[in-house]
Design a protein that fits this description.
single chain; about 450 residues; mainly beta; Tachylectin-2, Chain A; Jelly Rolls; 2 domains; five-stranded antiparallel β-sheet; about 0% helix; elongated
Length: about 450
């Protein structure tokens, strides 16, 4: 399900990489309820290609500040050494190289003999190009490509894009004369045929080579999306082709960063979405995608599925895997054990895609139960399977476990909860914008 990692883990900006017989994810590290993007540490998770539900945490793989268990992995420090959006590639020597952006500082390259690290500092980037190139020489949010001929390219940028070739013999030296600015335009006045705001570059470069074509996954100025452009060359020119996923469709949107990977013949897009009523606490999600023969990638919707084909409605569903939140409701983590959809108001919609209710069912009804926390108000939770209302559950002032009979349905369905109150007239104004209850989990029962 989504998120695909344990629900307490916050790994945004996910870069998925297949090394050997495992899929690895490298990303930033957020904290629940933090007022900052990212952390001073990078972590790595992986799963066997044969079982994408068995994710293993390999722990901290790189640090820019000492903590209770590790010294800093860099030999320069400051008040703000937050680590943003890493990438890892395998070099021509078989070693694994980690590229990271350290806030407001020249980034660095680290190396390991294993894809899961830990990584040791190799060098800062070395170059003779002017400091103003590549965002003051910081190489923000780097994405790296080792091409089939062994040449290495780094792509980066914030509000303007850059690429450059890296010396494949040492993996940190930028080759003189190789830097190209605006390989994806950031304004409508620049050349390149990118006229729409949805195509203009903002941040989050992630390169891939697929069937001989070079793909650039990136976050456009319409920042809740992941867009993509293609080229016949690693240095462009790139042509905008569309967007893959939008984490702001019927959901509290925010920045997006991720990439695509093929696992066992199936393509996926890794991305993140927001929790805790902020744009800082981001959890990694994944959706199945298709790459058509002409190289295009049809947009996909956000779901609660992750790697699953469907969810089981007859197993308890945690409320915080909602993929639709319309209104003022949002997901929050109260502690390591408790997460809920909170701030639920009159008119809000909470949705989950998709459940498989199975084949024909001999009875005309089944039961629905939800665990809630009351907020001193009475309200109704209308239960929908796709566009069909199948029941209504009343939630009292003290909440608790609520139950109701609902119409039995079959097949693959999205489930939505639409919230309403009976308050009306001048007294209803007191409850118009009031939190009604919190949703913790729910289940259908035959």
């Amino acid at each position: 399900m989504n998120p695909y990692l344990p629900r307490w883990e916050y790994i945004p900006d996910g870069e998925p990489r297949v090394f050997g017989d495992r899929i690895y994810v490298y990303g930033s590290h957020d904290k629940a309820g933090s007022d900052n993007f990212c952390d001073f540490v990078l972590k790595c998770w992986s799963a066997p290609l044969t079982d994408l539900t068995k994710w293993v945490c390999h722990g901290d793989i790189f640090h820019t500040k000492a903590d209770r268990d590790h010294p800093s992995d860099i030999d320069w420090n400051g008040d703000n050494t937050l680590l943003f959006a890493p990438d890892v590639v395998q070099g021509i020597d078989g070693k694994y190289y980690l590229y990271a952006y350290i806030v407001n500082a020249r980034g660095c390259v680290a190396v390991s003999d294993r894809p899961e690290g830990p990584f040791r500092l190799l060098s800062k980037y070395k170059y003779t190009i002017p400091e103003e190139v590549c965002c003051n020489g910081w190489f923000i949010d780097p994405g790296v490509l080792v091409d089939d001929d062994g040449r290495t390219y780094i792509y980066c940028g914030f509000e303007r894009s850059f690429l450059a070739e890296v010396n494949s013999e040492n993996m940190y030296e930028i080759i003189d004369g190789s830097c190209i600015e605006h390989f994806i335009p950031c304004t409508e006045t620049e050349e390149g045929g990118f006229a729409e705001e949805e195509s203009l570059f903002y941040e989050a470069c992630s390169p891939r080579k697929i069937n001989g074509t070079y793909y650039m996954i990136y976050s456009p100025k319409r920042g809740s999306r992941l867009a993509y452009a293609t080229s016949d060359s690693p240095t462009g020119p790139f042509t905008y082709r569309g967007y893959i996923v939008d984490n702001g469709v019927d959901y509290p949107g925010g920045n997006n960063h991720g990439s695509v990977v093929c696992i066992n013949g199936q393509w996926y897009i890794f991305y993140h979405r927001m929790t805790n009523g902020t744009i800082m606490s981001r959890r990694g999600c994944v959706e199945k995608i298709e790459i058509l023969p002409d190289g295009t990638i049809p947009p996909v919707e956000m779901t609660s599925l992750g790697f699953e084909d469907s969810l089981d409605p007859y197993e308890i569903t945690p409320a915080d895997i909602a993929c639709v939140l319309k209104g003022k409701a949002f997901i929050t983590e109260k502690n390591a054990f408790d997460r809920a959809v909170i701030n639920i108001r009159d008119g809000d919609v909470i949705g989950y895609k998709y459940f498989d209710f199975g084949e024909d069912y001999s009875s005309r009804t089944m039961e629905f139960a939800a665990k809630t926390k009351g907020m001193g108000c009475d309200c109704k939770m209308h239960i929908f399977a796709d566009d069909e209302e199948i029941g209504v559950c009343r939630i009292g002032q003290d909440g608790g476990i609520v139950k109701t009979a609902v119409k039995a349905v079959t097949g693959r369905r999205a489930v939505y909860f639409k919230i309403s109150t009976d308050y009306s007239g001048w007294t209803g104004e007191y409850f118009k914008d009031r939190s009604l209850f919190e949703l913790i989990e729910f289940v259908f029962m035959k």
